[in-house]
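Q: Could you fold this chain for me?
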Amino acid sequence: MSDHIDFYFDIISPYSYIAHKKIKKIKENKKITFNYKPILLGGLHHLAGISAPAFNKYKMKNMQSDCELISKKNDISFKWNLKFPINSLSIMRGYLQVDEDQKKDYLDTFFDAYWKDNLDLSLENELCKLLNFLNIDTEIFFKEIKHQSIKDNLKELTSDAFEKEVFGAPTFIVKNKIFWGQDRLEYALEELSDN
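A: Sure. Below is the predicted structure, expressed as structure tokens.
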């Protein structure tokens, strides 16, 4: 019997951002546990032999208009980031590095910075501004995300996702069933309620 939903995400994924915003609204009204599972989407695509939509101009154009449409219909503030895609490695390692009680604010801040405020998070000075806003020591942060244990943790989470046949983000898993895409969150909720 499952009492939670596993949520696989990467900050680089606009659909993960939309899913995160939907989850926040759900949690305001229902007592449902979402286990946030950070992965490195580029690494997952590599393992699965998938070419990301960001590198196909037709898919990219569709993805941008699709995200704008979905966000508007769900009353989610969204702005396509002009620096998409970036390497999210430092940000995703950072999520694993920060204290447990900081993870929520960290994720909210970085998701919003990239997918609402159009910031270039490939720039270290932009990361530092956000870390300072969160009262996270930047020197410790950049030192810690280079520790082998943090590197291995993100690799293991990504590999574990691949072994469970996760191939993209966002993905939800309930009772070993996979639901891929922000538009499948409702199906994942239905599966959970069928306990």
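A (continued): The radius of gyration is 16 Å.
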